[in-house]
Amino acid sequence: MKHKLFLCLSLLTSVTFAQAPTFSVTFPANQSAKPLDGRLLLILAKNNKPEPRQQVSDAVETAQIFGVDVNGLKPGQAAVVDASVFGYPKKSLKELPAGDYYVQAVLHKYETFNRKDGHVVKLPMDRGEGQNWRVAPGNLFSKPQKISLKAGSKQSIALVMDQVNSPIVEPKDTKFIKHIKIQSKRLTEFWGRPIYLGAHVLIPAGFDEHPEARYPLCIYHGHFPDDFGGFSETPPPANMDTTDYSERFHIYGYKKIEAQEAYDFYKKWTSKDFPRMLIVEIQHANPYYDDSYAVNSENLGPYGDAIMYELLPEIEKRFRGIGQGWARFTYGGSTGGWEALAVQTFYPDEFNGCFAACPDPITFDAYTNFNLYKDKNAYYSEGPFRRTPRPAQRNYLGQLKCTTEETNHRELVLGTHSRSGDQFDIWEAVYSPVGSDGYPKRIWNKLTGEIDPAVAAYWREHFDLMHILRRDWKTLGPKLTGKIHIYCGDMDNYYLNNAVYLMEDFLKSVKNPPAGSEVAYGDRAEHCWNGDPTQPNYISRLRYNTMYIDKILKRIEANHPAGADLKSWRY
């Protein structure tokens, strides 16, 4: 009897729809009198804390989401989401179990760009938030609404996007943190409209008292910074709440740890023996992602040259930088780790060292956990009788979080034409050639995972850093010896250590000249391990701006031109 009851209950909880519900979504004229373009997103969640739009992720607890492009949607006109619309993780509304849900709609607005290359494309302009569709200023959304989906009944549910995200408040200058924004001539010409680059600059103690001093400069590469983070002139309150729990690091009170580290950095920064220098975090969000990867790209434009030859000279002019390659360094983790190695490689004379932590794939022979050139499918390893899904994320024990197919399908729901604003799509936007429609050529079929070898070959020649170093070592080697430092955990959540192993083998093998490089691994360390074996990840990731100082000073002492200014900034 118990078995029969259990079976009945199981069947009841797994009922799906013979005829799927339909959602019609509108926005009122008081939000926009003009028709709008964009990506309409419909999110369903089992609870409302936080709002459904904040629950979409790669985690198994993710909310359900569907997406459809809208072009010229008029106020009061309904955009329809029905069983034909592709979703994640369930692919169709037909697959949703009956039951109670909280539903919310979001319109991620697109604008039209008339690019220099003649292509006309529709993309989401960054509006100061760092390409986040959930909070992008001007995006419309509906209030979460509780609904009950019933099996066997034809339901039509109306949603009104009568809410709008507020503008982002720009940060203000402080004694030590300054902000700069310039219009880039190169990027404005490429995109056919004004495009700006910004930066947060941490200036040294004694800057005003020593007008004769000129300073070395470090670029701290990473994802979009809303301000210079990890620096505070005040200590955390003694009674600061420590009940917050970090899911990532499995500890309580992490906000207080961060606050204490920020204050400790301030104390080091202003101490007598700390070297005086400039540290820069760049804002280069663009229509595809929260940063540009700091290189020139067919789809994003000449961000590398714009940063190198427009933004950095302006920073060094305003804040008395030395302005020469021997006095510039770069570091960062993850995206920032790839960028640090990339700019050192593409602009070898302009930097005197890079420190690349947990870098995005630095060779596509190990594009996370597969070979982009030899494998046929990004989602499955395939044999004659079976297909095995490829993992995308793991923890330090190797336990799977999601597959490559799942995370790519989430991106596909968030945006077609590489417009999700997420990880695999930005790699595609940066590395791919422009397609005939003006959007990035797909490296693989986003639905099936079938790899395009012609696009992979383009990636290899233009952005595979190990291949480029091997191909051009005769000219690059003399400029890069002693400058490359790479760090990665051997249990990186995204399998990024696989590419680091191959790069290490290459760097050890080169002669004439030898690389003189450093590669180190953190035992059982997850993503963002950055080279300090004495501290756990959750501490060392907060110390990028201090942990490489000794190596930077040694590099300056060992490699500077005659007559270089080694004293004015050592007060």
UniProtKB/TrEMBL annotation:
UniProt-listed Gene3D superfamilies: alpha/beta hydrolase
Residue runs in coiled coils: none
Signal peptide stretch: 1-20
Entry keyword set: Signal
Name recorded for this polypeptide: Esterase
Organism field: Spirosoma profusum
